[in-house]
Amino acid sequence: MLARAPRSVRDLRRRLLLKGETEADVDAAIERLTAAGLLDDAAYARAYVRAKVSSQAFSRRRLQQELAKRGVARDVADAAIVEVLHDDEVDEVANIERAASRKLRTLRGLDEETQRRRLYGYLARRGYAADDVRAVVDRLQRTVER
């Protein structure tokens, strides 16, 4: 399972139990994998954050939610998010604007109000704060009008 994709401890535990493994065997396997460095929630969280920030422009809040769903502890998730955003020098304002610009290109044929509504929803689902979304949507629509 780990060869196909990295997994969190909770996710691996759940999958092994669903396959019918006993609780004791699962615990022993997880302990061995963790000791060998093959199962590490912190490394998993950093890789996940790096991938989602670059490809899908997720916000901090969305990253926290997604990692929590995958069973990564809040403190481990927060540390990974801070580390990746700092190390990769991610500009969150530029990130939201890049995501909005990409999405706006797909909405070109629609009327202005529909564009605005769909763009707002898209960015909100990415986890950005309402004030940030509103500011970016307003700024982008002003530049499109010119």
Short description:
With 146 residues, the protein is mainly α. It is built from eight helices and no strands. The chain has three domains: 1-39, no CATH class; 40-90, Arc Repressor Mutant, subunit A; 92-145.
Classification by helices and strands: mainly alpha
Radius of gyration: 19 Å
What is the subunit arrangement here? Answer: single chain
Order of helices and strands: HHHHHHHH
Q: How many strands, which pairing sense, and closed or not: the largest β-sheet?
A: none
What is the total number of structural domains?
Answer: 3
State the helix count: 8
Tell me about this structure.
The chain is mostly helical and 146 residues long. It folds into 3 domains: 39 residues, no CATH class; 51 residues, Arc Repressor Mutant, subunit A, CATH 1.10.10; 54 residues. 74% of the residues lie in helices and 0% in strands. It is elongated and about 65 Å long.
